Structure prediction request, 258 residues.
Amino acid sequence: MLIDSHCHLPHERYDISVDDILAEAKDFGVEKFINIGTSVEENIKSIETANKYPQVFCSIGIYPHENRTSPIPELMDSLEGNLNMSKKIVAVGECGIDISNIDDSRPLEEQFILFGKQIEFAKKNNLPLIVHNRNGDEHLLKILKEHLNSNLIGVVHCFDSDWDFAKKVLDIGFYISFTNMITYPNKENLLDVVKKVPEDRFLVETDAPWLPPQSLRGKINYPKYVKIVAEKVAQVKQKTFEEVSERSYANTCSLFKL
Ligand SMILES: [Zn+2]
Prediction:
């Protein structure tokens, strides 16, 4: 049994319904899903999806570049207001640091503030954190360490750094989550992390509709393909597929208290 620990279910990129996405995933052995919020608007959709489907849980958060023109206190109020809309909110995120050359990006100093506020929000509500990181390794660790206490746990999702950074993430008690990026060419550093990460500290996810497996590059990704992530982890770690499925399932349930 598999769980997709990070997907975006209601999304305009899909050409089939959420019902069909979940049914297809079930045929691949994917039984549970964590649907991720990224903005004020997406958080509502994420909650509604979790409330509709028993097998779907959800998170709420503000992605580094979303709702860029809204004042941060307003965004935090919105997250606060989301909390009583569902008992299936299991995490805060995705939130974090994103350093990329996109138009309409949130300035870095503002990203730091927004990330810090969401970390405090997670701590206050005893929820784990789902961290997004693009080119922000050092900033990310610094901010996480500033806010660290025994109440702060989480996962660095869509992990794409080397073992040196992975070790630092593990040292502060966080989990690491792998996507189908581990099937892409020239990812030796990442495969080294897959190999070395302790059995009880990794998750698998799709980040669908983004990041399809190598064999489907350029196409839409679906939660069913979390099976391919688990297969690749098994191959790299020289474990059976069943062992990796069970492990990642148990780790996800433990982190998100499912
Ligand atoms: Zn995502």
Notes: Residues 2-256 form a domain with the TIM Barrel fold (CATH 3.20.20.140). Residues 108-124 form the longest helix (17 residues). The longest strand covers residues 89-98. Residues 6, 8, 36, 94, 207 surround zinc ion (CB under 6 Å).
